[in-house]
Amino acid sequence: MNYDFDQIISRNGTNSYKWDYVKRDGGIVPWDETDVRRHAKPVLPLWVADMDFPCPQPVVDAVTEIARMGVYGYAFPPSSYYDSVVRWMKRRHGWIVDPDTICFTPGIVPALHFLVSAYTKPGDKVLVQPPVYYPFFNAIENLQTRPALNPLRYEDGRYYMDFDDLEAKCADPEVKLAILCSPHNPVGRVWSAEELRRFGRICMDNDVLVVSDEIHCDLILGNHAFTPYATLGPEYQERSIICTSPSKTFNLAALQASNMMIPDPGMRDAFQQTVRSAGIFTLNPFGIAAVEAAYDHGEEWLEQLLDYLEGNFRFLESFFRDHLPGIPVIETEGTYLVWVDFTSLGLDKDALQRLMMEEARVFLDEGYIFGPEGEGFERINIACPRSILAEALKRIEAAVKGLNT
Ligand SMILES: Cc1ncc(COP(=O)(O)O)c(C=O)c1O
After folding, report:
1. Is the CB of residue 179 below 6 angstroms from any atom belonging to ligand 1?
2. Could you tell me if 250 and 142 lie in one domain?
3. Ligand 1 center–CA 156 separation, angstroms
4. 129 C-beta closer than 6 A to ligand 1
5. pTM to 2 decimal places
6. Does one domain contain both 86 and 50?
7. How close is the Cα of 220 to the center of ligand 1, in Å?
């Protein structure tokens, strides 16, 4: 079946976080009429990692079948659910997962909270590599732990891990856990096996447990190759927790089903105990059905999606090269999030945010929310019909050029 990713599906007024909220008065608030009165045109949202495309038809069919039944009682993931996860990881990534190691949670962000809670105590340190997905910081703060920062190095338009700094940070005995973002949101790096091995070696040598958040693992562009952390070798697998979910790949976030792979039985028990102590015992029936349908029948859709995203990335890249050549676009190797360097404009973070929200009328994720290393950058979500992306880019161009008039 051919999917039409150019099709515009109106999401306004559907309780969509992406479309029905705006950034205003220092927060993200529900959209209302005052926004129209204040501004000539409605804002275009290219911020939160949510795609504007319809799901694979088999997912829509599976969810519709449950909705039609009309009885929405408790559900539980059956063995076929785990089999679908295992088959997908083997087929797409060559990773052999033991189904007994899989622990479900209603999302990776809650899982990160449970992981920090299960494996650290208040006051411990958790290592992260900013600029990075900001809920990592929330989990660290909410569980009264402290961040140990190992910022990425930005050199010649590409990001790299700083291994010397990593060694120094991991040598601190208070660092108990490291959260790896692989592929990395927002800088778009797909880490090589060599980089992951060095990262893992340093963590293991210092007895730092690795949590590898691999939610973007299926969204790999160009010729880049994703390496699941657990495939680096048995010792890497045993000292790690891998976070996976079809929710970014197929845009199923609201159905709240994700899977953590925890091979070590003691660590798995500790994690499950933490999840249960939060009163979570199961998933919802829509999420269960969607995971199975997506992993079993969503591959054809995913191949088409990846072609479309690659086209959107090349479109954006050539737009900046032709129209705004002083603003470098970082190559997106994986994810559908593009990290763009606006530092040459010389604006502080508030002025850059104002330029995007109020002048361009595009809602992007501001670089600074990923850590101070991100100041002066913007994260653009390109998972939308190309016509919407084109309109957003034209608006950004006009706003940037308007700065000098
Ligand atoms: C790295 C990363 N982890 C987790 C999430 C969100 O996970 P969930 O919706 O399952 O809580 C995102 C969403 O953008 C993400 O980029």
Report:
1. no
2. yes
3. 28
4. no
5. 0.97
6. no
7. 16
Which residues does 262 contact at the CB level (< 8 Å), separation at least 6?
101, 103, 241, 268, 271
Q: Does 107 reside within a domain? A: yes
- For residue 313, which of 297, 336, 292 has the smallest C-alpha distance? 336
Tell me if 293 sits within 8 A of 287, measured CB to CB.
no
Domain for residue 6, yes or no? no
Give yes or no for residue 107 CB within 6 A of ligand 1: yes
Q: Domain limits at 188?
A: 72-297
* 286 and 303 together in one domain: no
State the total domains in the chain: 2
Q: Where is the domain boundary, 297, 320, 350?
A: 297
Instruction: Decide whether any atom of ligand 1 lies within 6 Å of the 214 Cβ.
Output: no
Q: Model confidence at 30, in pLDDT bands (50, 70, 90)?
A: confident
Residue-wise pLDDT tens digits, 85-114: 999 999 999 999 999 999 999 999 999 999
Q: Which residues contact 10 (CB under 8 A, 6 or more apart)?
A: none
Atom of ligand 1 nearest to the CA of 181: 1
Whole-angstrom distance, CA of residue 188 vs CA of residue 279: 35
Tell me if residue 73 falls in helix, strand or coil: coil
Q: What spacing in Å lies between the alpha carbon of 131 and ligand 1's midpoint? A: 15
Could you tell me if the CB of 105 is within 6 A of ligand 1?
A: no
Residues 227, 127 share a domain: yes
Closest atom, ligand 1, to C-alpha of 256? 10
Substitution site in 51, 109, 132, 280 for ligand 1 pocket (most atoms within 8 Å of beta carbon): 109
- 108 in ligand 1 pocket by Cβ < 6 Å? yes
pLDDT of residue 229: 98
Q: Give the SS3 label for residue 329.
A: strand
C-alpha distances (whole Å) from 69 to each of 36, 75, 285, 297, 398 are 41, 13, 11, 22, 51
Query: Domain with 45 in it: what CATH number?
Result: 3.90.1150.10
Residue 156 sits in the same domain as residue 285: yes
Q: Does residue 10 lie within any of the structural domains?
A: no
Task: Tell me which residue has its CA closest to atom 14 in ligand 1.
Answer: 49
260 lines ligand 1 (CB under 6 A): no
259: domain CATH number is 3.40.640.10
| Residue 49 included in any domain | yes
What CA–CA distance (Å, rounded) separates 357 from 35? 11
pLDDT at 39 over 80: no
Atom index in ligand 1 nearest the CA of residue 109 equals 11
Specify whether 303 is located in the same domain as 292.
no
Q: pLDDT category, 23, cuts 50, 70, 90? A: confident
More confident residue, 12 or 303: 303
Of 297, 330, 346, the one marking the end of a domain is 297
Per-residue pLDDT, 36:
67
Q: Are residues 395 and 349 in the same domain?
A: yes
